[in-house]
Structures are given as structure tokens and as C-alpha cells.
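Annotated sample (chain length 448).
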Amino acid sequence: MSGIEKQTVSIATTERAQQIIARCRELALCTEVKGETTRTFLAPSMHRVHALVGGWMQAAGMQVRVDAAGNLRGLLPAADPYAPRLLIGSHLDTVVNAGAFDGPLGVVLGVALVEEMVEQAHTNSPAGKGMPFAIEVIGFSEEEGVRFAKPFLGSLALVGELDSATLACTDRSGVSVADAIRHFGLNPDELPAAVIDNSAFGYLEFHIEQGPVLESKGIALGVVDAIAGQTRMEFTFTGQANHAGTTPMGPLRHDALAAAAEWIVEVERYAAATPGLVATVGKVEVPSAAGNVIPGACVATIDIRHAQDSVRHDAAHHFLAAADSTSAKRGVALSTTGLDQAAVPMDPALTALLAGAAARATGQAPRLMTSGAGHDAMVVARRVPAAILFLRTPGGLSHDPDETVLPADVEAALATGVEFLRSLRDDRAMLTRIAARTSQRKREDIHA
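Output written by the structure step:
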């Protein structure tokens, strides 16, 4: 490639990155709360989002539809109508008072990647040679769990797990998930048609890191090897409320807050000494608190995460034992409740392919890292192999109006996507395995 050609490609890529950022900021104006970006599951503002993103999809030559869960889906077919299908997706909903990039960036990057491949095909670029697989870009209707206190409604529908119990969940206004679907102009009876078929062989998600690691290392991109498992527990320490001035220090006191505080210090010590473990006591409440009363009860929550479930479970057991010990020492009773979510490894083959693509596209090896936050990929991975590419988050800031991305990092992510598709297209051994697996799944469906 000549110097002029390289310069032309660089200018085009820069313009594409700026367009991606501008599109994300345009979507951020679609909101249900004036002056901020708040967009929950199938809120009226999502109609405008679908019109914008669907228009970009159509202009790129994609077939566009909205499924019964409100997922926006754009398909770029392959020449062979029975070809396997690569999924690229992220979510279009937001938290309350959100930034412009958490979620929508992954969808907009997916559309831009299709635009890039179609453009290269039209200009007879070697990288744009026809793909032996279709590409479907999915904008999930819900991932954050804001409206119904249950996340991943969009991706759960995709894998056929949006069950009747979930459809019956209600928001603060008493509107059920099924009703929300109807109010948006969709039919929950058609949810079976939203489920991916066995032509889907892989899933790729672009997402901001939502943390400070990549920036601290001076690296633009990260490749996720696993999504951390999570344990959430609530610890209730019950002691004895008493007068602060007349009860002497020592064994006559049964201070629930002091027991919780001693336990919190042990949580921090143990987590800091365990590689890869994060443990956070995020909420502490003292019911009926008063300045001159020994706390008779204290409720504390803990969030424990690690890529290896065994390490996380060991930590949970240690924290429970530590709470038992400090409670017994202080004459305080202890009760706990909790939930457990297993770690989700990303597909090793797709992850290796993505890491290699990033290294070749950018000249810098991406960081292999565990995602401490949940993503749609952890749900989609139940049905198809999945991979995630992280983009550096300036300041580590996410779920905030000041959340942003660097244009150069968006360029790097787009170039990585192009190289990933090219590598996937040219990896005959992987394509053979994909074809065999797809055929086997289709045969299983026929005999089921």
C-alpha cells in the first residue's frame, strides 16, 4: 500500500471513529428524563433509538426488525442463505442519569463494522472479500435491570429464557414486563421467534471497560477472558441497644455496629491479600440510630467477585466465619441471606482470535483481563461461544454523564473488528469446526 493510500485509509478511519462517537451522543439525547440520559426497558424514548439505529442499519444494507422483546436486529446476509451467523451486540438501555457510551457504543460499533466491510467489498479491497457467514448486529432492549430490578431481559429473550415468572415482574407503577412489551406495540406471544437458531456460531461484544485498569497501564484495548462470578450477601448483626453513657466499655456492651466494623476491616484485609479478588461492603445501615445509643442492630451488604468460582466461594466462607467469630466475641447474633452467580468464561478460540486481531490491527498487544461487571455476553454464552473487546475508559468513569471514550481507541476497536472478521473468514480450520457444530445442532433439532 502506498503512502497516499495509507493516509487515505487513516483519514477514513478517523472520520468513522468521530461518526461513531457522534452517533452515541445523538442516542444519548433519546431519554425519558429531560436534561439527562435515562432510558429504561421499552420506554417511549426507545422508539427514537430504534428509528436512528435502524436507519443506520438499513443504510448499510442490513435487513432490520424488532423482535418481541424489543431487541433491534440488523442482519447482513451471506451469499449462502444457510450460512452460519456471527452475532455482534450490546444494549441500548441505560442506568439513571447515564453516560453516552456504556451499551450503545457496542451497537454503534457493530453497525460501523458492517459499514466498513460493505464499503471494502464495494471497493474490491482484499479485506472486504465476501464473508462465508452472515452478520447480525443486535441492540438489546434491556441489560441494566433498572425498570424491573431484573437485568438482561433482552439477551434472556435471545436465548429463550425470558420465562413466565419474569414476564409477570412489575415495575413501580404495577406494569408487568409483558404489559410493557404490549404497550411498546409488540406481542409477548411472539417471543419464541426472538430466540436465536442454531445457525449462530459466535457472539462478539464491544464495551467500555467501566474501570481504570487499561488507562493505568497505558493500553487502549482489553480482551476479556472471563466475566467474574459474583456473591452478594446481607449480614445482620443483632446486639443490644443501651445507653451510651451508662454502659461501660468491654464485655457488658453488645455493639452491633462495632462487630460489623471489625468484620469490614477483615473483609478488606483478606481481599487485598487475594489476587484477583474484589470484595466490597457497599451499604451499612443502623436501624433506629441515635448519637447516644449503643447500636443494637446493624445491616451490611457485601459484594464478592472473582473469575474463579472456587476462590470466590472460599472468600465467602472466610467472610462468614469472620463475621461469626467477631459476633460471638461481642455477644452479638448473626444472620445472613445471599445469592450466587457463577463466573462465565469466554470462548478460548474466539478470545485468542480477537487478541491476535487486536495486536495486528493496533501494533500493541491487548491486555487479557477479567470483567468485574456483568455483560450480555454472559447470557448469550449459554447458547453460543462469546468474546468481548474492552475499550479504555478515561478516568475509569462509567454510569456517569461524564463517561467518555478516546477517538483513537474507537479507531483501534473498529480496526480490530475488521481484522477479527478477516481472520475468522480465513481460518479454514475454525470455519470447518463451526460448520460441523452447526450441522450437528441442526440434526439434534430435527430429532428433538
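Annotation: Residues 3-28 form the longest helix (26 residues).
Annotation: The chain has 13 helices and 15 strands.
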